[in-house]
Amino acid sequence: VIEFKSIVKSYTMGLQAVQALRGVNLTIKRGEYVAIMGPSGSGKSTLMNIMGCLDTPTSGDYILNGHHAAGMADEALAAIRNREIGFVFQTFNLLQQYNALDNVMLPLIYAGIAKDIRRERALAALTSVGLADRFSHKPNEMSGGQRQRVAIARALVNNPAIILADEPTGNLDSKTSADIMALFDEIWSKGNTVIVVTHEDDIAHHARRIVRLHDGMVFSDIVNENP
Amino acid sequence: VIEFKSIVKSYTMGLQAVQALRGVNLTIKRGEYVAIMGPSGSGKSTLMNIMGCLDTPTSGDYILNGHHAAGMADEALAAIRNREIGFVFQTFNLLQQYNALDNVMLPLIYAGIAKDIRRERALAALTSVGLADRFSHKPNEMSGGQRQRVAIARALVNNPAIILADEPTGNLDSKTSADIMALFDEIWSKGNTVIVVTHEDDIAHHARRIVRLHDGMVFSDIVNENP
Ligand SMILES: Nc1ncnc2c1ncn2[C@@H]1O[C@H](COP(=O)(O)OP(=O)(O)OP(=O)(O)O)[C@@H](O)[C@H]1O
Ligand SMILES: Nc1ncnc2c1ncn2[C@@H]1O[C@H](COP(=O)(O)OP(=O)(O)OP(=O)(O)O)[C@@H](O)[C@H]1O
Ligand SMILES: [Mg+2]
Ligand SMILES: [Mg+2]
Fold it and tell me: Which of A39, A201, B106, B218 has the smallest number of CB atoms closer than 10 Å to its CB?
């Protein structure tokens, strides 16, 4: 499904260059459950943004479902991003002027789903994250953890084959975190690919493989013996 | 220092009313180290925003350093907020158009500190959170955890007597979290008041008192036996 070949990502800041990724080689097959860990600033979000076709590498090869992402036209990338990938951003990225229901319906509008089906599926997704009673609230009318759960519902509403979640439980208490991870476990058990960035060991423990980044490089890549 | 007497906070949403706080009684003395925990949506951020004079209660009495906050003029509130209180927001609230150094200098500009002293103190604060090498980066040129640490440096730069930190380690790995908590421990050991919202037990363990909210009410308030 996902293949990184010597992926480098660097940012130019005036005369300096910041190396966010320094040559990452990584292959993730369909149906895998992978946790990505590593210190703050080690390149986790950069890796996820490239995986989700939201950013392009400075050099190296990214191959998604057999296609070289660099060679794909924008429409083809947008279609893959929309149908195949559900993305939970570290900063949520909710639209401030829309309420929770409209935010969750957004991917369904892009996918051209009819209005009454859209509403039903969006409400079901909000219910699955425990927020049926907040569907009419705008982002600034919800708590930090509630906004995070709206972002999770939006990523799941289109039943994507690949879930990319960047610190999905960073603002959640342990019970709510466990509920969210149970959702991800279920999605994985149906044969989908789940990739979760986290800094909490008990969250990473749900995955079957743990990849650790350090300073823009893969530091270790081990199988989780007892999930 | 801080006294809540039957504090209620409710929001009107069309015909309904959402009760964020339903009559909270809480007293925190100078020099205390308190952790606030509770499920997502239980009222923790609402409590902190009222404590930091960033929001006003719907009813009840908030008394800060012996003054009724409701009776204070805006300038007096702003002066207390600026000199006495260092606030770390759950959503960071960094100014996007400024770099890390300028964001951290902001409280010093309000306090009327001279330019060269401002720069020196802001650099020292950024160094104390491990970000001396990111001082020229704007928020969108930093990782989630780095932005969180800039927000912490900004809250500490004015050496406030009261620290209010809302999930300060939500986006940080365990090593970086430990470094940040060591900073808070040090500030507390100098006689300042530290109040930290967290959902992680090992973070709450640094405090000497743990207050748990549930559905807008104080559910339990216990002394931490073995910090
Ligand atoms: N502007 C608003 N309008 C309506 N409801 C609001 C508003 N702001 C907050 N709320 C509601 O008030 C309740 C308390 O919110 P608060 O942000 O204090 O929760 P919290 O304990 O900090 O949660 P979290 O752990 O998710 O950050 C929530 O149920 C939220 O939906
Ligand atoms: N637009 C940019 N310009 C310059 N440097 C950047 C930019 N975006 C990210 N960086 C740098 O790239 C590095 C990797 O960032 P990334 O967001 O991938 O880290 P992360 O592992 O997700 O960290 P965190 O756990 O704090 O979220 C960081 O050191 C960051 O400062
Ligand atoms: Mg990140
Ligand atoms: Mg909160």
Answer: A201
Compute the half-sphere exposure of residue A23: CA atoms within 13 Å on the CB side of its CA.
0
Q: What is the dihedral of CA B13, B17, B20, B26, to 10 degrees?
A: 140
Testing the interface with B: which of A40, A92, A174 to mutate, by most B Cβ within 10 A? Answer: A40
Name the amino acid, one letter, at B95.
L
CA distances from A211 to A65, B171, B179 (A): 20, 18, 24
CA angle B29, A145, B205 (to 5 degrees): 40
So what's the pLDDT on residue B138? 95
- Closest CA to ligand 2's atom 31: B142
What is the pLDDT averaged over residues A1-30? 94
Burial class (CB in 10 A: 0-12, 13-18, 19+), B69: buried
B167 touches A at CB < 8 Å: yes
Between B100-110 and B144-156, two packed helices, what is the crossing angle to 10 degrees? 20
pLDDT value of position A75: 86
Residue A52 CB-density burial (10 A; 0-12 exposed, 13-18 middle, 19+ buried)? buried
Q: Which amino acid would we find at residue B143?
A: S
Q: Is A19 on the interface with B (CB under 8 A)?
A: no
**Scanning every residue of chain A, which has its alpha carbon at the shortest distance from the alpha carbon of B14?**
A136
Q: What is the pLDDT of residues B68-85, one digit of tens each?
A: 998 888 888 888 888 899
Q: How far is B134 from chain A (nearest CA, A)?
A: 10
Which pLDDT does position A82 carry in this prediction?
A: 84
Please give the distance, rounded to the nearest whole angstrom, from the Cα atom of residue B112 to the centre of ligand 1.
Answer: 34
pLDDT at B78: 85
| Minimal-distance CA residue of chain A relative to B13 | A137
Give dist(CA B148, CA B141) in Å, integer: 13
CA-closest residue to ligand 1 atom 18:
B43
Give A65-121 pLDDT, tens digit per residue.
999 998 888 888 888 888 899 999 988 899 999 999 999 999 999 888 999 999 999
